[in-house]
Amino acid sequence: MAKMKTEVPQYGTIMQKGIQYYRTRIMDADGKQVSLYAATCEELYEKQLEARRQVEEIIFRRQHPTVAEYCQKWLLMQSAKVSASTLRGYTADMKNYIIKPLGEMYMEEVTADDIRLALVPLSKKSEGLYSTVNMLLKCIFYSAERSQILEHNPCVGISGKGGKPAKKREALTDQQVEVLLDTVRELPPYLFIMLGLYSGLRREEILALQWDCVFLDESTPYISVRRAWRTEHNRPVISTVLKTKAAKRDIPIPKCLVDCLREAKTASKSDYVISDSEGQPLAASQFQRVWQYVVVRSTKPRNYYKYVNGQSIKYTVTPTLGMTQRNQPKIKYTLDFDVTPHQLRHTYITNLLYAGVDPKTVQYLAGHENSKTTMDIYAKVKYNKPEELFSVVNGAFHQNAAD
Question: 311 phi and psi, to 5 degrees?
Answer without folding.
Answer: -110, 145
